[in-house]
Amino acid sequence: MKYVKYIALAAVVPKMVFAAAVSLQSVEVQRIEPCLEPLTTREINQQNEIIKPDPCGPGGGGPYGPPSTPASITYPAYTNTDSIKISWAASYGNGYPVTYELYESKNNGGWAKIYTGSLPSRVLSNKTAGKYRYRVLAKNASFSSSYRYGNYSLINPRQKSNLYLKYPTTMSTLDSENYHFRIANSAAKTELKRDYPEGQSTSMNTDEGRFHLGNGFDLVRGSLKETCLNVNHPDFVITQTPPYQASTFDISYVNDNRHLAQLLDVSSSAQIGFSTDDFNLGLSGEKERYVSSVSDETYVRYVVKVKNRREFWSLSTPVNAIHPALVSNVLSPNDDEAKADFRERCGDNYINNVNIGSALYLVFRFSAKAYSYQEREAAKAELSLAIGNVFQAGGAADSSSSFTETLDRLNVEVRADQIGGPPGLAAGIALNGLNVVDKYNQFVQDTNPSNWAAVDYSTNNYQRPTVYNAYAHSQIFADYTGSQGPLAQMRRWLDISVQHRERCDLYGGYNKNSPTQCHTSIGEISTAMDLCRETRTWDQCVHPHQYNTGSLTTTSPGTYLLGWLSTNVKKLNEDTNTEDYDHHVYKRSLNVDDRTCLKNSQCFLNPYRGSGPGIGKGFDVFTYYYDNPRGGSRSYSVYPQHCARTQVFLDTGNWFLADTTADWEYSVRVEGLCPDAEDFLVIP
Questions:
Q1: I need a labelling partner for 163 at 20 to 30 A (CA). Which of 143, 276, 329, 612 fits?
Q2: Which of 660, 607, 629, 549 is CA-nearest to residue 131?
Q3: What pTM was computed for the model?
Q4: Are the CB atoms for 147 and 50 separated by under 8 Å?
Q5: What's phi and psi for 564, nearest 5 deg?
Q6: pLDDT over threshold 70, residue 13
Q7: Before 55, cis peptide (omega within 30)?
Q8: Phi first, then psi: what are they for 671, rounded to 5°?
Q9: Which DSSP state fits 510?
Q10: Which of 233-242, 260-269, 423-432, 524-533 is the least confident region?
Q11: Residue 25's pLDDT is what?
Q12: Angle at the Cα of 67 from the Cα atoms of 65 and 73, rounded to 5 degrees
């Protein structure tokens, strides 16, 4: 149907000459009423809701239509900084320049325009705590596209005390002494990220990506802090000896994501989380290799790990190891602010020894979505045997055509991560059966002193200065210990976040959009974890069984979060159903339209399963008897998403000239997944 809008006669006359030569027999003309009032818009909470543009916008000599609506708008679900980056897909302008308008709503308030320009992204700074939502549209000279809406984002800026304003002389003294100490002593390369204290200029640090023994360490965030020990004391001594265990080699099957963290040597504080590694630090190396390898339970994974330890460095310290300026000016018994300030500068512990060398982690994985349980077990055993035949402990690996064939046939993905060693192996190289052995051998052979890095490290508690011997350790320092302490609670929340990712990422593995609750809950979990990261909020860092949402929330204040997660962030479980059908027709016809379904409409058939007409659709059809003299052809489809639909027209024809019966006796088995409410597990 073609619609023609009535316009001024002067504009129509030139077009009428052309239109006369065109047949309009199939064209229906519909009169469009003039716009007397501007269109109104309404804000609906669904993601990516579309609002139609005003059809009576300005016209003229082009453009003659609006640009395309941005296909997406993305920004983090949570941040604990005061800045956030909003990005959106570029619009197609039909040959005309496009600009964008970005709008912001805070705490469900009205929409305010915050940006107009041609770039498809914007970094917003100096944001205060709140629940934010963003929308964007594209414009050309004459028209506007529809809006593209994003989800909610929680912005929860970290409140930090500026130690350089609070203790200017102390901080200046420490920085000066540490600077000269770093110049005079060797440093180890590290994958750990450094969290600088508020107010410090990072330009004074010349060892980014490296650390010295004595550096502080934040156990909860998994980040390096500054040196707070008296590095000029004669009893502050670093010694070097051969490592206790020079080389280790291991091939392990990954039982679950908790086990994966152990195999990849990931500390509890770095295992996962949703707040971009706290304060725009970026991912630490150990966290990056873990996050990139976390997957849902449908994957079979093996880890090949080789470590070469070449030097062992250890630190011995004086009795009063902490710098005197911190003892005199910062530490103060039973003073929560003093505890928080010291931890902000120095962390919870300090690094007291380290092994230097190289480590390589190879993660082999394949998706088992297309396998039955028995097939999966057979494929797992085959991959294990193939890996074991190729990689030998303490020596070079030998490739083979059977190894390559096994990896190709099982569609095995290989990911490499490294600490030290020749650079570039883990830098996005696509590894497969043809090159993984060569890369492994290259790593083993080319490791040398110039590319060694810290492969193991350990930490010590800060010891009480003798002047405070009359006080307990917890009266002087912020206490992270105990089964109900912030480090233990953080481990529980981190484990919940891993379960969350396992559940929500699985939808994408089946080409399904994850539920909105998956996005919403990221901010809720991150808020709970940040209460454990920040010393000044440790009194609110509680066991998941006791946590209720606060005022900053995307659900509602006072929600019992663990219960909400278990109910709303559902787990995809396998589900099957088999139905038998027996259709018999005598001297007549019958339209067969059977549907074999999973238990509810939220389920969906597994597109990786099925056989015969249902291969790659999630169902199997077993026909026992079929006789259809004058009927139609059988058809098979998935409709709706949780049902297999089987159809045919059974017809016996004229009974006195043909077969008087028509039959179709068969069974259908459907395999799929159903989102079920299931409790999140809390580690003891």
A1: 276
A2: 549
A3: 0.83
A4: yes
A5: -65, -40
A6: no
A7: no
A8: -125, 130
A9: T
A10: 423-432
A11: 37
A12: 155
